[in-house]
Amino acid sequence: MFKKLIIAPTVFILGLAAAAGVSLNGAGATFPYPLYAKYFDAYNKLTGVRVNYQSIGSGGGIRQLFAQTVHFGASDAPLSDAKIAEFEKKFGTQLIHVPTAMGAVVPTYNLPGVSKPLNFSGPLLAAIFLGKVTKWNDPAIAKLNPGVRLLPLPITVVHRSDGSGTTYIWTEYLAKVSPEWKAKVGVGKSVSWPVGLGGKGNEGVAGLVRQTPGAIGYNELVYAVQNKIGFGAVQNRAGKFVLASLESVKAAAALTDFPQDTRVSLTNTPAPEGYPIASFTWILVYRDLDKDRAFKSAAEAQALVKLLEWIIHDGQQYNESLHYGALPEVAVKVNESNLAKIRYNGMPVK
Amino acid sequence: MRIYGRLGDRLFSAFLLALGLAVLFIAGLLAWELWLGGRQAFATFGFFPFARGTAWDAVKGNFGAWPFIVGTVITSAAALALSFLPSLAAAIVIAEYTPRWLGEIVAYLVDLLAALPSVVYGLWGIFVLVPLVRDHLEMPLFLWAGEHAPGLLGALGAPIGTGMLAAVLVLSLMIIPYSSALARDAIRLVPREQREAMYALGATRWEVVRRVVLPYARGGIFAGMVLALARAIGETMAVTMLIGNSAKLPYSVFGPAATMSSVIANEFTEADGGLHLSSLVAVGFLLLLLSLLVNLAAEFMLRRMAVGEGRK
Lengths: 350, 312
Known about the structure:
The structure holds 2 protein chains of 2 kinds.
Chain A: H1 2-19, E1 23-28, H2 33-47, E2 50-54, H3 58-67, E3 72-75, H4 81-91, E4 95-109, E5 119-120, H5 122-129, H6 139-144, E6 156-160, H7 165-177, H8 179-184, E7 197-199, H9 201-211, E8 215-220, H10 221-226, E9 233-235, E10 241-242, H11 246-252, E11 278-286, H12 298-312, H13 329-339, E12 343-344, E13 347-348
Parallel strand pairs in A: 1-2, 1-3, 5-9, 6-7, 6-8
Antiparallel strand pairs in A: 3-11, 4-8, 4-11, 9-10, 12-13
Chain B: H1 6-45, H2 47-52, E1 56-57, E2 62-63, H3 66-97, H4 100-115, H5 118-148, H6 153-156, H7 164-188, H8 192-200, H9 205-234, H10 237-242, H11 260-267, H12 274-304
Antiparallel strand pairs in B: 1-2
Helix pairs in contact in B: 1-12, 3-4, 3-7, 3-9, 3-11, 4-7, 5-7, 7-9, 8-9, 9-12, 11-12
C-alpha cells in the first residue's frame, strides 16, 4: 500500500520528465500570442513537449530566426521577396510559411449619438486617413449612410505609433483600393502618416478613440470584440457592406487560386461574403531544419513538425473560442504538402 | 592600528579607482555600441544630414532625426520651465516655513512622486488629465483665439487633448521630486549663523530666504534642475502614451509631436529592415550626445557659481 503510494507518483514524474525532454523555442508576433499560448499549453498537456514562445513582435521574430536562436519564428506579415532572397542566399535553404490563424482589422470610431454601425468603403477610408475628408458630415460619408444623422464634427485620425502587423494589413488594404495612398504613403508596419495621432498598441489606439469625440482608428477584430468596442462595416469588392465576424473573415480566404508558398494577401478579397481587411498570421520555419543552428537533434526536428501538424489540424478548435479565424480547408491542404517537404540532414522528417 | 596602514589604504584606493573606471568604461562601451549600431544610417545619409533630416518614412527607407530632436528639446525644456517654480516652492516650504514634523511628511509625499512608475503617469494622463486639459484649457483658448487672434490658431493646433501640452504637463509633474529633493537638501545646508546674522540685522523671513538662503543654496538648486532635465530628456513611457506620436513638423502647442525616446520605444520591436533599425539606434546615439551636451553645459555653469559661496 505504502509502496504503491510512492511508486505511482514516481513513475508519473519520470514519465513526464522523459517526454518533456524536448523543448522548442519560438519568437515573434504579438497578435497571435494568446492563441499560441493556448496551443502550446494544450500541446504540452497532450505530449509533454514544452514550447517557449516570446511575443517580441514580428520584426524581432524574423531577426531571431535569421540569428538562428529559435526553432521557429512568427510573423503577421509574410516576408518580402527581397527578404526571402536574402534568406535563401544566406542559409542555402528555403523558408516555409505556415499560416496558423486568421485575423481582421476593423475601423473603430467615437461618434456621439450614432448607435448603429456605420458603413465605410475602401476609398472613403483612404480619403479619411489621407486627411482629405475632415468632417463627419462630409457627403462621401453621408452617401454610404443614408438616414444617419451626422454632425459637422471634425474627424481625428488615430493610428498605431508602434510598428505593427495590424498597420501592415491596414495600409496594404488602403494601397489596394487607393492609388493615391499607394503613391504617397505605401505599405508597411510603420509608415509616414499624413495626418493624425499615434497610439501605442491596440490599447493605445482604442484609448485615444474612446477619449476623443470624432476620432476614427483601426484595431484588431479580436481586441475590438474582447473590449466591446463598436466598429464599422466595410464594403468588399463585390459591393456588399460586411461587418467583420469569424464567418466573414474565414470566407475571405475562400480563394480558388491559393498559392503554394501561402504568402497570399487576403485584403480586398474577391470572395462575395468575405470581409475585405483580413489576413493570415504565419509561423516561419527552415525547410532544412539542420541548417538552423537552434536544432540540436533529429528529435527536436520531429517534435517541431509534429507540433505544426497538430496546430493546423487539432489545434484549430481553439481558434474561434479566442476570436481568431480558423484556417479554411484549402489552407490546411497547402500546409500539409509544405510540411511534408521539411527535412533534417537531407532526410524527410515525417 | 595596522589596518589603517599603507597596504590597506592602497588596496582601498585601488578598489575605488577600479569601480570608478568601470563606470566610465561601461559608459564608453555603451556609446561605442550605439555608434556601431547606427553606423549604417550615418553612412547612408551622412551624420549631419541625418540629424537635420525631417523625413521619417520606413516604407521608402528615408530617415532623419530632426523632428524627434526638436520634440525632445521642446518638451523637456518646457517641462523644466514649468516645474522650476513649483519644485523650488516645495523645497522652500519644506525646509523653511513648516515645522520639522510637517515638513518631513510633505517631503516624503513629494519624494513619493518619483517612485510612481511612469506608465501610471501615462494612464493617469490619458484618463484624467487629457479630458481635463482638452475641455477646460485647450477648448476655451482655441475658441478665444478663433475670435480675437486668428493668427495664433496655427501655432495652437487642434484642441484634441492628446499632444505636446498634455505630455509637457505630465512630464513637469514627474520631474518635480528630483529638483525639489536636491534644492531642499541644499537649503537645509545653509549655515544657521548666516540666517541668524540676517535676522539680527532686522530682516524679515522673506528677506532671509531671498538674500541668504537662495544665493547660498543655488548650486544645489541648479544641480537639481540638471538632474530633472536629464530625467525629462530620457523619459519614454508616459510621453509616448500622451504626445500623440506624429513626426510631422512644424509642431503646435496642442497638436501631436514625437520625441527621440518615444520613436525608439515605438518602432524598435517591429523594425526588421537593416536601415530602419540602424536609424533607430542612430537616434539613440544622438540622444546620448544631446544628454552629454546638456550635462557638459550644466557642469560649466555649475563651476561658475561655486557651491556655498554666495556673493553679496
